[in-house]
Structures are given as C-alpha cells and as structure tokens.
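Forgive a beginner's question, but would it be possible to get any protein sequence you like and the tokens describing how it folds?
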Amino acid sequence: MEISKRVLASVLLVGVAISVIAACGKRQAEPRPGGTVVIGLLSDPETLNPLVATSIESKDIIDLLFLKLVDEQSDFLNFDPSLAERWEFSEDSLSITFFVRQDLLWEDGEPVDAEDVRFTWELQIDTLVAWTGRSLKDRIEDVEVVDEHTVRFHFANRYPYQLMDANDGVILPKHIVEKIPREKFRTSEFGRQPVGNGPFKLTRWVSDQHIELERNPLYYEEGRPVLDRVVYRVVPDMTTLITQLKTGEIDCLESIPVDALTDIRESYPDIKIYSYLSRAQTFIAWNLDDPLFAEREIRRALAMSINTTEIIQTLWGGMAEPGDSPMHPILWAHDPSMKPIDFDPEEARQIFEKHGWIDSDGDGFIEKNGSRFDFEMTTNQGVQLRADIATMCQEYLRRVGIKVNPRIMEFNTFIQGVLDGEFQSCVLGWEVGTRVDLTRYWKSTSKPPSGYNISGFNHPEADSLIDRAKNTLDPSEARPLWYRWQQIVYDEQPILFLAVPYKVVGLKKRFCGVEPNAIGFFVNLPEWYVSDDCR
C-alpha cells in the first residue's frame, strides 16, 4: 500500500494523520498525581505575552497558562468546552453566544468573566497592540457582554469559520492588563510575568537557561493537571540536547534529526519515538514573472526532472510524505486522489525540446535563442536540509541540461528578497493553519505585501473558487470546490510541493497518557502522568 493511502486511512480513523511509533497512548495504569517532565528547547521563548508571541516555543507554553473559549479538536471541525461551557448560534447565524464557566479563577484568585472576553477582543483588534492575528477578527463587528457569564459575538456575515475566528487567541485578565497603556503593552512585564487561568502557572524563568511551570491549584478541572511541574531547559545546540535526552537530563525533545533516530531506537530502550504528520510543507517556488518559468508545461517538466522520492529518502530518511497538493493532507478539504508529479526526466527532455530548448553546442546544457537555461535557486542559512535540497535539484536538473546555481542567504535578506519578488526560484517551507482558507497564499490579489502569493500565481477561476469555497457553510458543498481548485494549481505547477515532513519526538517511556496530534505534541500534556506500567 502506498504511504499516502496509509495516511488517509489514519485520517479517517482518528481525524488526523498521526502514526505513533511505540504505542503509548493507551493508559495501562490509574494516573497518580505528581512528577515532573523536563522538555528540551533550542531557544528561549521571546515572550509569554499571548498577543506578542510568535514562536512555537512561546505558544506551546502559553497554551498551558491560558484558556481559550473552546478547545479545537484534531479534525479542525469540532470543538469541546473550555473557558466556555457551552455556546449557541443565533437563528440567522450572525451571532454566537458563549456561556462562560462560573467556577473559573485567574491564578491570583479573581474570577474569570465575560468582561475578560470582551476586553481581550478589544486588545486583539487594537492597532497599537498589533497582534499578528488581528485579521482573523475582521468580520466580528462587536462582542457584547450580556451578563457576568454570558458574552455574544456579532458577525458581519455568515461564513464557515465564525466559531474558529471567535475562538482564536487565549483570553486575558482584564483586571491586570487594563492597567497597561496600549502603547506599552508589547514590551510590558506581562510578557515575563503572565497571570493565567490554565492548568499550569509560571513560577520561574531564567533567561536562556530554564523555565519552570507548576500545577495551578485554582484550575477548574478536577484531577488536572496530573504532573506537578513542567520544566523547559534551553540548550541552543541539537547535539547537546540529544545527548541530554539519552542521559536523562531532559525527558522530551521535539524535531529529532533523522540521523539520530537509529542510535536512539537501538541503544536507548527507555525512550519512545513518536512520529506524526506535521503541519509543515516544504516546496520549491518558481517566480512566474521570470520568462524562464512563464510556461505551464516548462514548470511541469521541471517537476518531472526532480526525484522527490529520492529527496525524501535521502534527506528525511523516509520521515515525510510526498507533496501532492497545495492543500495539506491533514485538512478536510484535501483531495485524496491527488498524486505527486511522476519522476520522468526523459519526458521532461522532450517537453523542453518541444519548447525550443536544445543543447545545440554540445556543452551539456540546453539553450534557446542563444541563451542557456540557467537560473538561481535561493534558500536561507540555518536550515541545512533546504541547502541540501537545492544541491540535489542542481544535480537532477543538470542531467536534463539545465544549470542551477544554488545560493544560500542570510535569513532576513532571503525572506525580504522573496517577498519583493527578487528571486528566480527558492526552497522554502511554511506551516499551514487549521482553517481551510488559502486567500493569503494563493489569491492573485495576495501578492506581497498584501499576502504570501510569492510565485505570483494568477488564475481567475482559481480566485473565484477560493471565494466561493471559503464562504460555503456546508463542508460537503465546499469540498468539490476545493477539489477543483487543487486540480487547477496542480495543472499549473506554480510551486513544486516536495514533502510533508513528520514531526519526530523522543519522550521517556515512563510518561503515559500521551496523545499527540497535528495540533501539537503537547496538546494533552495536562493528562500526562508517570507510571512504571506504561506501554
């Protein structure tokens, strides 16, 4: 059975493409309170202010300190109660009423209420605060406090992601944050001394060394969290972190390099390796404004010339799925019939020749009108895998007569060049959100600086399909629109999607109840517990 089919079967069974190597998600013993988990980090979180933080490290910790209105589930369609014990749509679906739990307290003992919810929304849309998710609230016209524990979100129009947009962002304590001037909010001490309402609270933070969280005794959910403490140890070197995982100085490490897996599996039986499909996509973008990449058939021939299967085996050690679509396979709108472009260099040569690209002087490179098929492939420093992809593509394309010049650039310079359209091709990656709305990445109106349509893709039917699909309330009706959109992008090949990598995490076997999914590895950390009888 093909890998992609196995992933699809997993999606159908559990709502998310996840494979757990060494099955530990089934509890074998009754959880007993107590214990500490030590998690290794490559870098210190920049802040724990929820409206300022951008790094994954910060957001993982923030999710343990603060609650959202509701908990998004791994199918990205359903939600469970959290800060709100229930919610209901109005008859015309233009408002959602949330009923805030009456047993919630901030960690300083003050009650959580509807005023906190409205105040948080006011901060989220404030241009002085400049929250990066501000656009998610664009269609929320007002947040009305109905009473102390009831709050109503009013929307400009009906659309599929009303609940998701209302829920985006954790709720903040009005009685503390309202004392901070808006213009000073981003640099305030709240980022170092947050006051939350989640299962854990911050007790100590020594910059570039460690962060300590302890169980919040005022947390509303009885018996949660089970662990006493979560400690994050900052070590800016992956080799050292792997050594500390092996020796037991840390208990958990995300993003373990493929070349370290064999030794851990063979020599360290006390470590479990978890592998699940990440929300990342790695790709090569062609600049469609460059005459070399203007023809659709030329872009398809370039894709045929690159052996993505070999790249995945060589660079990811097989720990990635082949890229087949601009729609990530964990999203409900992904078309399971999509297949990667076949590796077929001979057919690619015929296409190039058909379009006038011929090696007329016998130097091994094809030319047209006296100009050689020669271009630059850029990527950023600090991610060796991307540099290796560019090098492998250089060799694959040399075999069909194309000269590729890899260029590794300083990160900020590289990104700015991509956003300014000053590139020919680039190796890049992004992490998809949990909503199916690709406007910012694919609409013709979303070229930088208005969005991230970096290839300059422009297709009127594709634009129309995005607008129709994202505003279709019923997923069963939106799905065929998204399928058609994917087929158009597949046919046009403005971007060659190489791979969807797996997230590889090592965790000591004594931790039970661990159930990671595509939302994140630590999504159910409050339920983790320590036991010698964990299998």
User: Anything to note?
Assistant: The two ends are 28 Å apart (CA to CA). The chain has a mean pLDDT of 90.
